[in-house]
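User: Before I run my own analysis I want an independent prediction to cross-check against. Here's the chain; please return only the structure tokens and, at the end, one sentence I can use as a sanity check.
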Amino acid sequence: MADLFADLLGQPRAVALLEAALERRRIAPAYLFVGADGIGRRLAALRFLEGIVTGPEAWRGGQPGLRRRLAQGNHPDLLWVEPTYQHQGRLVKASEALAEGVNRRSAPQIRLEQIRELTRFLARHPVEAPGGLVLLEGAEAMAEGAANALLKTLEEPGTGLLILISAAPDQLLSTIRSRCQQIPFVRLSSQLVNQVLAALPAVVPAAPVPEVQTRKAAARRGAGKSGVAKGGSAQSNAAPSEAADTDAAATEPAAPASADGDQISAGSAATAEKPPRPDPPELLELAAGSPGALLHHRHQWRELPEGLAERLLALDRDPLVALGLARDLSEALDGEQQLWLLAWWQLALWRRRGPSVDLERLEQLRRQLRAYVQPRLAWEVALLEMAGIRP
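Assistant: Structure tokens:
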């Protein structure tokens, strides 16, 4: 008989706590799954919910059909909640923001109206499970009003079960933390990270939506020359893709959709794609023991225009080169990609030179980009200064 948590690697303490709860059928009304993104918290939550719905007699083996329904968000007693953006008068899930063309300059939030819907959902009579099941991701992104409303729900839990997932529990209200049983998750060793990734099926990004594809293609050509229902809630029973999510430290098949854009099987498209760029050594360090984070960093690396990273490392004292590089960076990359490239460049410089003034200047550039300074101007000034030229 297969073990319920067999595909959750490197988390013996979390598995022991969850198995003990299922074995004794002493389920707390609320749990807080704590740990870095991409190390298996969502997978553990799905398996735990599967064990609860399966019942006391057969929970260890699980049920493939139920597992599939939970992973796809196709279960009447399960509600997924995730941070959202305000976009054109409606809420858009963070996992759908890229496809919707949402401006992601401000951080997504879990909002008061989402918590109100969560409360109504838990008050419903369940169909199959012992009670309503809610999985709330990115709990640290709750707005103040949402956090206070959630606290009231936790004070009167009823028969439902609420699982909060957070990478920064210290940002939650202490009263919320105290009302949840905490389940700790740890970062994986390099060996386990490679084991998790080796078990995942190969996927390649499908073509992005035409508007996004056109914008990126035009920007990259420029770089090459110089080297939810309308008006409704943003949450539903539908789950973000487990395979493409940064918390999918799993060994099960990938789902077809992704927070970074649709994905398709490599079997149908790999022949049309050129081999992916090799990973630089910095990616594994940036991942810091998180398989999901490594997948994210690998995706960001392969999305960079050809030769752009190499031009950063080869920056010289020519002001025209520095200005051209600043132009290409600001035109080819959106804000999130610029911040990611900056983090990679900082680590790459540190590996090559150790502590330096350039690293301090890049940290200043990071603060400027986060403060929404005009990106091209910020890059121009920083690159000129790093090239030894005072603008």
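Sanity check: The two ends are 68 Å apart (CA to CA).
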